[in-house]
Amino acid sequence: MSNKTDSNLYTILFAIGMVVVVGALLAFVASSLRPKIDENRRIEKQQNILYAMGVNENDESSAIFVSDNKVGEEFSKYITSQLVITNGTDAKEDDQAYLIDVKKEQQNAKDGKERQLPLFVGEKDGKTYYIAPIRGKGLWDAVWGYVAMNNNMVVQGAYFDHAAETAGLGSNIKERFFMDDFIGENLLNASGSFVGIAISKSNGDPLNKDKNDNEVDAIAGATITGDGVAAMIKSELKLYVPYFQTLKNK
After folding, report:
1. Domain segments of the chain as ranges
2. Which residues fall within 8 angstroms of residue 190, CB to CB, at 6 or more apart?
Protein backbone atom coordinates (compact mmCIF):
# COMPACT_ATOMS: atom_id res chain seq x y z
CA MET A 1 0.00 0.00 0.00
CA SER A 2 1.41 3.40 -0.98
CA ASN A 3 1.79 6.15 1.57
CA LYS A 4 -0.78 8.94 1.14
CA THR A 5 2.00 11.51 1.53
CA ASP A 6 3.55 10.22 -1.69
CA SER A 7 0.56 11.19 -3.82
CA ASN A 8 0.54 14.16 -6.18
CA LEU A 9 -2.62 15.50 -4.52
CA TYR A 10 -0.93 15.57 -1.13
CA THR A 11 2.06 17.42 -2.59
CA ILE A 12 -0.19 20.02 -4.23
CA LEU A 13 -2.29 20.54 -1.08
CA PHE A 14 0.84 20.77 1.09
CA ALA A 15 2.35 23.38 -1.26
CA ILE A 16 -0.87 25.41 -1.24
CA GLY A 17 -1.00 25.24 2.55
CA MET A 18 2.59 26.44 2.87
CA VAL A 19 1.95 29.31 0.48
CA VAL A 20 -1.08 30.39 2.51
CA VAL A 21 0.78 30.13 5.84
CA VAL A 22 3.92 31.90 4.63
CA GLY A 23 1.84 34.57 2.88
CA ALA A 24 -0.14 35.19 6.07
CA LEU A 25 3.08 35.45 8.10
CA LEU A 26 4.64 37.88 5.62
CA ALA A 27 1.49 40.01 5.60
CA PHE A 28 1.50 40.08 9.40
CA VAL A 29 5.17 41.06 9.55
CA ALA A 30 4.71 43.75 6.88
CA SER A 31 1.71 45.14 8.73
CA SER A 32 3.58 45.12 12.04
CA LEU A 33 6.60 46.90 10.54
CA ARG A 34 4.60 49.47 8.58
CA PRO A 35 4.60 52.15 11.31
CA LYS A 36 8.38 51.81 11.72
CA ILE A 37 8.92 51.90 7.94
CA ASP A 38 6.78 55.04 7.63
CA GLU A 39 8.64 56.67 10.51
CA ASN A 40 12.02 55.89 8.93
CA ARG A 41 10.80 57.33 5.63
CA ARG A 42 9.70 60.52 7.39
CA ILE A 43 13.04 60.87 9.15
CA GLU A 44 15.05 60.30 5.98
CA LYS A 45 13.09 62.80 3.89
CA GLN A 46 13.21 65.46 6.58
CA GLN A 47 16.96 64.92 7.00
CA ASN A 48 17.48 65.28 3.24
CA ILE A 49 15.47 68.50 3.07
CA LEU A 50 17.29 70.01 6.03
CA TYR A 51 20.68 68.94 4.67
CA ALA A 52 20.05 70.74 1.37
CA MET A 53 19.38 74.02 3.19
CA GLY A 54 22.50 73.66 5.33
CA VAL A 55 20.99 72.26 8.52
CA ASN A 56 23.24 69.29 9.23
CA GLU A 57 26.04 68.06 11.44
CA ASN A 58 28.83 68.08 8.84
CA ASP A 59 32.47 67.99 9.87
CA GLU A 60 35.36 69.21 7.71
CA SER A 61 34.70 66.77 4.86
CA SER A 62 31.87 64.36 5.69
CA ALA A 63 28.16 64.71 4.94
CA ILE A 64 26.31 64.08 8.21
CA PHE A 65 22.56 64.43 8.72
CA VAL A 66 20.83 65.95 11.69
CA SER A 67 20.47 63.05 14.15
CA ASP A 68 17.27 61.01 14.15
CA ASN A 69 16.18 62.17 17.59
CA LYS A 70 16.49 65.85 16.62
CA VAL A 71 15.23 65.90 13.06
CA GLY A 72 11.53 66.40 13.83
CA GLU A 73 12.24 69.39 16.05
CA GLU A 74 14.70 70.89 13.56
CA PHE A 75 12.30 70.39 10.67
CA SER A 76 9.58 72.26 12.54
CA LYS A 77 12.06 75.00 13.44
CA TYR A 78 13.49 75.67 9.99
CA ILE A 79 10.76 74.67 7.52
CA THR A 80 8.18 77.44 7.62
CA SER A 81 5.82 76.05 4.99
CA GLN A 82 5.32 73.06 2.69
CA LEU A 83 3.75 73.72 -0.69
CA VAL A 84 2.21 71.56 -3.37
CA ILE A 85 2.40 73.21 -6.80
CA THR A 86 0.09 72.28 -9.65
CA ASN A 87 -0.45 73.81 -13.08
CA GLY A 88 2.90 75.57 -12.83
CA THR A 89 1.90 78.35 -10.45
CA ASP A 90 -0.97 77.14 -8.25
CA ALA A 91 0.50 76.58 -4.79
CA LYS A 92 -1.31 75.35 -1.72
CA GLU A 93 0.04 74.60 1.74
CA ASP A 94 0.16 70.97 2.84
CA ASP A 95 2.03 69.89 5.98
CA GLN A 96 2.37 66.38 4.51
CA ALA A 97 3.98 67.52 1.25
CA TYR A 98 7.27 65.89 2.23
CA LEU A 99 5.56 62.49 1.91
CA ILE A 100 4.69 62.99 -1.77
CA ASP A 101 6.25 60.22 -3.88
CA VAL A 102 8.20 61.97 -6.66
CA LYS A 103 8.54 58.74 -8.66
CA LYS A 104 4.77 58.26 -8.59
CA GLU A 105 4.19 61.86 -9.62
CA GLN A 106 6.57 61.46 -12.56
CA GLN A 107 4.55 58.45 -13.72
CA ASN A 108 1.33 60.44 -13.32
CA ALA A 109 2.74 63.06 -15.69
CA LYS A 110 3.69 60.36 -18.22
CA ASP A 111 0.14 59.01 -18.00
CA GLY A 112 -1.29 62.44 -18.76
CA LYS A 113 -2.40 63.07 -15.19
CA GLU A 114 -1.75 66.16 -13.13
CA ARG A 115 1.63 66.14 -11.42
CA GLN A 116 2.09 67.52 -7.92
CA LEU A 117 5.36 69.31 -7.22
CA PRO A 118 6.40 69.53 -3.56
CA LEU A 119 8.35 72.62 -2.51
CA PHE A 120 9.60 73.36 0.99
CA VAL A 121 10.21 76.86 2.25
CA GLY A 122 12.81 77.27 4.95
CA GLU A 123 14.23 80.17 6.94
CA LYS A 124 17.76 80.21 8.36
CA ASP A 125 19.98 83.10 9.42
CA GLY A 126 17.64 85.60 7.79
CA LYS A 127 17.66 83.85 4.42
CA THR A 128 14.76 82.11 2.66
CA TYR A 129 15.36 78.75 1.04
CA TYR A 130 13.16 76.93 -1.49
CA ILE A 131 13.93 73.20 -1.47
CA ALA A 132 12.74 70.93 -4.28
CA PRO A 133 12.98 67.11 -4.44
CA ILE A 134 14.18 65.69 -7.75
CA ARG A 135 14.58 62.20 -9.22
CA GLY A 136 16.29 60.81 -12.31
CA LYS A 137 18.32 57.96 -13.79
CA GLY A 138 22.02 57.26 -13.26
CA LEU A 139 24.18 54.58 -14.84
CA TRP A 140 22.59 51.55 -13.16
CA ASP A 141 19.49 52.73 -11.35
CA ALA A 142 17.71 55.73 -9.88
CA VAL A 143 19.43 58.86 -8.61
CA TRP A 144 17.64 61.52 -6.59
CA GLY A 145 18.24 64.59 -4.52
CA TYR A 146 17.07 67.81 -2.92
CA VAL A 147 18.16 71.22 -4.18
CA ALA A 148 17.80 74.39 -2.12
CA MET A 149 17.47 77.65 -4.06
CA ASN A 150 16.86 81.31 -3.37
CA ASN A 151 14.10 83.21 -5.15
CA ASN A 152 16.41 83.82 -8.14
CA MET A 153 17.03 80.08 -8.55
CA VAL A 154 20.61 80.31 -7.33
CA VAL A 155 21.54 77.04 -5.60
CA GLN A 156 22.06 77.40 -1.85
CA GLY A 157 22.74 73.74 -1.14
CA ALA A 158 22.15 70.24 -2.47
CA TYR A 159 21.96 66.63 -1.41
CA PHE A 160 22.22 63.72 -3.86
CA ASP A 161 21.87 59.96 -3.41
CA HIS A 162 21.62 56.85 -5.55
CA ALA A 163 20.33 53.29 -5.63
CA ALA A 164 23.20 51.40 -7.25
CA GLU A 165 25.91 53.60 -8.74
CA THR A 166 29.46 52.24 -8.93
CA ALA A 167 31.34 52.41 -5.62
CA GLY A 168 34.13 54.99 -5.63
CA LEU A 169 32.90 56.46 -8.93
CA GLY A 170 29.25 57.33 -9.52
CA SER A 171 28.50 56.74 -5.83
CA ASN A 172 30.53 59.88 -5.10
CA ILE A 173 27.57 62.08 -6.00
CA LYS A 174 26.68 61.91 -2.29
CA GLU A 175 30.12 63.09 -1.16
CA ARG A 176 30.77 66.60 0.13
CA PHE A 177 33.36 67.48 -2.52
CA PHE A 178 30.74 67.02 -5.24
CA MET A 179 27.60 68.34 -3.54
CA ASP A 180 29.28 71.48 -2.19
CA ASP A 181 30.33 72.52 -5.71
CA PHE A 182 26.68 73.32 -6.48
CA ILE A 183 26.41 75.99 -3.78
CA GLY A 184 26.17 79.39 -5.47
CA GLU A 185 25.64 78.00 -8.97
CA ASN A 186 22.99 79.67 -11.11
CA LEU A 187 20.23 77.64 -12.72
CA LEU A 188 19.47 80.57 -15.02
CA ASN A 189 21.82 81.98 -17.65
CA ALA A 190 22.82 85.62 -18.02
CA SER A 191 19.64 86.44 -19.94
CA GLY A 192 17.44 84.89 -17.26
CA SER A 193 16.51 81.70 -19.11
CA PHE A 194 16.57 78.38 -17.29
CA VAL A 195 19.46 76.17 -18.42
CA GLY A 196 20.22 74.02 -15.37
CA ILE A 197 23.74 72.99 -14.33
CA ALA A 198 25.98 70.85 -16.54
CA ILE A 199 28.46 68.38 -15.04
CA SER A 200 31.38 68.75 -17.38
CA LYS A 201 34.63 66.83 -17.90
CA SER A 202 35.97 69.79 -19.86
CA ASN A 203 35.11 72.33 -17.17
CA GLY A 204 37.94 74.87 -17.04
CA ASP A 205 37.10 75.83 -13.47
CA PRO A 206 38.12 72.88 -11.24
CA LEU A 207 38.06 75.04 -8.10
CA ASN A 208 34.53 76.11 -9.04
CA LYS A 209 35.12 79.83 -8.60
CA ASP A 210 32.93 80.83 -11.55
CA LYS A 211 29.33 80.57 -10.36
CA ASN A 212 27.82 81.97 -13.54
CA ASP A 213 29.02 79.31 -15.99
CA ASN A 214 26.11 76.93 -15.28
CA GLU A 215 28.44 73.98 -14.75
CA VAL A 216 30.46 72.09 -12.16
CA ASP A 217 33.41 69.72 -12.47
CA ALA A 218 32.62 66.09 -13.30
CA ILE A 219 33.57 63.11 -11.15
CA ALA A 220 36.40 61.14 -12.76
CA GLY A 221 35.15 57.83 -14.16
CA ALA A 222 31.50 58.67 -13.59
CA THR A 223 30.45 60.35 -16.83
CA ILE A 224 27.09 58.63 -17.23
CA THR A 225 26.13 59.15 -13.59
CA GLY A 226 27.08 62.82 -13.87
CA ASP A 227 25.07 63.19 -17.07
CA GLY A 228 22.12 61.61 -15.25
CA VAL A 229 22.38 64.08 -12.38
CA ALA A 230 22.62 67.02 -14.80
CA ALA A 231 19.62 65.75 -16.78
CA MET A 232 17.68 65.29 -13.54
CA ILE A 233 18.42 68.84 -12.41
CA LYS A 234 17.43 70.28 -15.78
CA SER A 235 14.24 68.31 -16.35
CA GLU A 236 12.94 68.43 -12.78
CA LEU A 237 13.81 71.97 -11.66
CA LYS A 238 12.59 73.47 -14.93
CA LEU A 239 9.09 72.54 -13.79
CA TYR A 240 9.41 75.02 -10.93
CA VAL A 241 10.33 78.00 -13.12
CA PRO A 242 6.75 79.33 -13.49
CA TYR A 243 6.35 79.38 -9.71
CA PHE A 244 9.65 81.19 -9.18
CA GLN A 245 8.56 83.77 -11.72
CA THR A 246 5.57 84.54 -9.51
CA LEU A 247 7.93 85.21 -6.59
CA LYS A 248 9.58 88.00 -8.57
CA ASN A 249 6.21 89.60 -9.20
CA LYS A 250 5.30 89.80 -5.51
Report:
1. 42-248
2. 212
